[in-house]
Write a sequence for this structure.
């Protein structure tokens, strides 16, 4: 075989061998370096995307704070008053309402779909529709879940199967009165997620919201690539996924995570590019090596061939030998020099690659350091002896120590209180021995600036560095969270601490909660917590849930009387029962009623005393008639008159007049007698006639005829006849007193009856043509002890008003258009009829 060809083959074999060996080790090393760097870059990119998302969310919080504290909103709320009983639907605005500042102030910061004004009971009062998106139905009716909270709140939640960002901020009117909250509603959709990344994420990177429990995507920045509802294992086929928990919303009921998705294709392309670059360098080196080796070997072979030819020629001439003599020459030294130079080239290339890798590692460390310094949590690294190795800027601010002051000092003794410092070594020992989880979380008490203690959550992560065991401690101040937990605990204890009964009953009538004050009610029902209410009360629970309306009822048990308020919670299918012991209230009401009856009785006696002269005259008429008829009978008997018909007729008149006197005394006793109120069915016209007969003598003395304009038909009411007669008697006597001040020819007194309120009530009017009531006294007529008469007590009208209200009626006063005064008393008819009342 010719030497040049042999040289080419040998060079090719040597080059391929070198290339294969270097490719085997270098490709593996590059893949390992790439994998570590890729994981670091992925974690970094995931943190950066989450930080941009949190910053975008914070922009919405700032926008809510700007809108809630703007003077246009406080001025708008100043004249408004929202009542808990007001069920008016929320006002919907398609254009910017008056309470919003100009859009140029807030639209560049946030992209809400709706802006809501919510009262303190969690009901929306006004809704501004910023975009064409529909407001979730869950926000229209209001809920305890979105009721006003005393602190600013940003919540990620799912409404109607879609994620939303709800940002609430308390609002006050211009006087500082709390009116409720302003809520920004922003759908976390593709546009929201893309805007949160501010166009920074590229190379096909997708961000999204992940339901950690169901492992499904709720939204993504590229829905055509990662659809809503797509499972995480499906997305894993095309993407590398890094998911992170939301520390901002860790108290929320939903377990949401922020996911960063990097396409496999992009990663493989980068990896292939790195490997290809390495292989290309190897190929260039191998080709160079083969070319150089072949040329050198060819030149060396040619030189050796010429030398061997000459040696062969001279040996044939001199020695006659055909075998050349192998001797060294400069060609081999040149080849050795070339090999040494090649080795130096390889070493130089390796050094350049090492320097490049160290630069990339240094750049990565710089980025990690920047992230560490901007972290909102204190990050502290300690060695195996428990001494501080590194702290970030946040830790310097929280604990009040500069970096050089803290490094080298014992972590537990410097930053934890005495009890927590005693616990920390045991945790460290457990981590080193594998008895504690790798990602340990615990709560301790830390010492802040000036040694002020505060509750802190510690996340402890062990790591190994150059054969040494170290810890990285992430420390978060949880003072606000502890305060919120304490408030929630106090609210949870509120029913148990209430001195009044509080119970909760489900639709089946089972008592699922009862506080200690409910013992008397449970004794009344004959059941305990966890048992079922009696049938009647189970039906009432079902009726309350079905109607959605509260129901109040009083129950008596022994000497106690309870007022029970059944309040339905339809969404959760149970009823809250709030009890109140009203025994003392009922006792006081009974006493007040008894005192009222005593006062009414005293007033009747006073009225009868004032009417004594008239009553004496009324009784004197039948008694005089009885005396006259008796004398006539005696004379006839003395004259021995045997005509018995005259005597019998006289005796009959005596009997009639005696009945008349007895009837007067009976009516007098019914008015004066002290008795319990008794409601009976009575004709109001008959009551009017009897009262008019009482005052007939007083009317004749004033030369007044009482005109009784009564309906022809009977109008029955359910009343205490004596009390209603007292009211009518008081009104008619007041009218007679008023007529004393006008000439006799102008004195008119009319008592009129009729229907009112479309036939549901009966009205009795007492109309006089007296001088009328002065305007300044009109508003005070029904005040106790107020009177326009020199000898009056001022109690007649207030007692009359009390009696009418006790009968579910009313008494009013007005001016008659002919002059004088009109008093109208109205009572509900026992059986409604269709008869109108002439108001003239």
């Amino acid at each position: 075989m010719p030497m040049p060809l042999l040289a080419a083959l040998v060079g090719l074999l040597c080059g391929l061998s070198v290339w294969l060996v270097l490719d085997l080790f270098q490709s593996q090393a590059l893949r390992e370096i790439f994998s570590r760097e890729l994981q670091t870059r992925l974690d970094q990119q995931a943190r950066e995307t989450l930080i941009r998302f949190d910053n975008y969310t914070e922009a919405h919080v700032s926008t809510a704070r700007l809108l809630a504290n703007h003077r246009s909103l406080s001025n708008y709320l100043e004249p408004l008053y929202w009542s808990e009983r007001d069920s008016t639907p929320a006002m919907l605005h398609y254009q910017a309402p008056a309470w919003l500042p100009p859009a140029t102030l807030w639209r560049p910061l946030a992209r809400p779909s709706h802006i809501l004004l919510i009262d303190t009971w969690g009901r929306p009062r006004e809704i501004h529709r910023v975009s064409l998106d529909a407001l979730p139905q869950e926000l229209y009716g209001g809920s305890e879940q979105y009721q006003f909270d005393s602190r600013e709140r940003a919540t990620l939640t799912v409404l109607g199967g879609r994620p939303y960002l709800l940002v609430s901020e308390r609002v006050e009117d211009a006087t500082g009165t709390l009116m409720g909250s302003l809520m920004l509603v922003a759908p976390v959709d593709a546009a929201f997620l893309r805007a949160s990344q501010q166009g920074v994420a590229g190379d096909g990177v997708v961000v999204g919201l992940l339901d950690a429990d169901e492992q499904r995507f709720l939204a993504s920045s590229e829905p055509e690539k990662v659809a809503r509802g797509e499972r995480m294992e499906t997305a894993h086929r095309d993407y590398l996924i890094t998911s992170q928990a939301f520390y901002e919303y860790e108290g929320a009921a939903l377990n949401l995570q922020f996911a960063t998705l990097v396409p496999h294709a992009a990663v493989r392309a980068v990896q292939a590019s790195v490997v290809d670059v390495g292989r290309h360098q190897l190929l260039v080196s191998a080709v160079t090596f083969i070319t150089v080796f072949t040329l050198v070997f060819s030149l060396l072979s040619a030189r050796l061939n010429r030398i061997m030819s000459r040696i062969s020629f001279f040996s044939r001439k001199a020695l006659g030998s055909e075998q050349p003599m192998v001797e060294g020459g400069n060609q081999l030294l040149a080849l050795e020099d070339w090999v040494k130079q090649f080795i130096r080239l390889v070493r130089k290339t390796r050094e350049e690659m090492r320097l490049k890798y160290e630069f990339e590692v240094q750049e990565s460390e710089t980025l990690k350091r920047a992230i560490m310094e901007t972290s909102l949590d204190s990050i502290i690294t300690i060695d195996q002896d428990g001494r501080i190795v590194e702290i970030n800027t946040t830790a310097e601010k929280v604990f009040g120590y500069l970096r050089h002051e803290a490094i080298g000092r014992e972590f537990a003794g410097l930053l934890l209180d005495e009890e927590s410092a005693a616990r920390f070594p045991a945790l460290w020992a457990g981590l080193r021995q594998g008895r504690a989880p790798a990602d340990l979380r615990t709560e301790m008490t830390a010492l802040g600036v000036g040694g002020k203690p505060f509750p802190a959550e510690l996340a402890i992560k062990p790591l190994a560095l150059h054969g040494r065991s170290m810890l990285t401690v992430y420390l978060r101040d949880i003072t606000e969270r502890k305060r919120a937990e304490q408030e929630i605990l106090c609210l949870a204890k509120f029913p148990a601490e209430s001195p009044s009964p509080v119970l909760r009953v489900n639709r089946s009538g089972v008592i699922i909660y009862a506080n200690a004050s409910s013992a008397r009610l449970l004794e009344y029902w004959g059941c305990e917590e966890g048992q079922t209410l009696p049938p009647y009360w189970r039906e009432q629970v079902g009726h309350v849930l079905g109607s959605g309306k509260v129901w109040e009822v009083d129950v008596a048990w022994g000497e106690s009387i309870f007022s029970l308020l059944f309040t339905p919670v339809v969404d959760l299918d149970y009823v809250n029962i709030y009890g109140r012991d009203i025994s003392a209230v009922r006792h006081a009401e009974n006493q007040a009623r008894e005192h009222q009856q005593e006062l009414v009785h005293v007033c009747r006696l006073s009225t009868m005393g004032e009417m004594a002269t008239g009553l004496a005259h009324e009784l004197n008429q039948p008694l005089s008639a009885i005396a006259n008829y008796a004398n006539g009978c005696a004379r006839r008997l003395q004259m021995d008159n045997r005509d018995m018909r005259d005597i019998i007729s006289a005796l009959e008149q005596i009997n009639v007049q005696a009945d008349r006197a007895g009837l007067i005394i009976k009516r007098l006793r019914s008015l004066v007698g002290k008795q319990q109120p008794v409601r009976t069915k009575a004709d109001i016209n008959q009551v009017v006639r009897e009262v008019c007969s009482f005052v007939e003598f007083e009317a004749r003395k004033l030369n007044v005829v009482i005109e009784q304009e009564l309906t022809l038909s009977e109008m029955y009411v359910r009343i205490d006849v004596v009390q209603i007669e007292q009211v009518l008697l008081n009104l008619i006597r007041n009218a007679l007193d008023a007529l004393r001040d006008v000439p006799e020819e102008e004195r008119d007194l009319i008592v009129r009856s009729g229907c009112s309120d479309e036939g549901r009530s009966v009205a009795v009017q007492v109309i006089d043509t007296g001088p009328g009531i002065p305007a300044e006294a009109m508003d005070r007529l029904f005040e106790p002890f107020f009177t326009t008469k020199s000898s009056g007590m001022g109690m007649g009208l207030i007692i009359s008003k009390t009696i009418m209200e006790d009968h579910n009626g009313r008494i009013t006063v007005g001016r008659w258009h002919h002059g004088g005064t009109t008093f109208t008393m109205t009572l509900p008819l026992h059986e409604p009829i269709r008869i109108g009342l002439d108001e003239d």
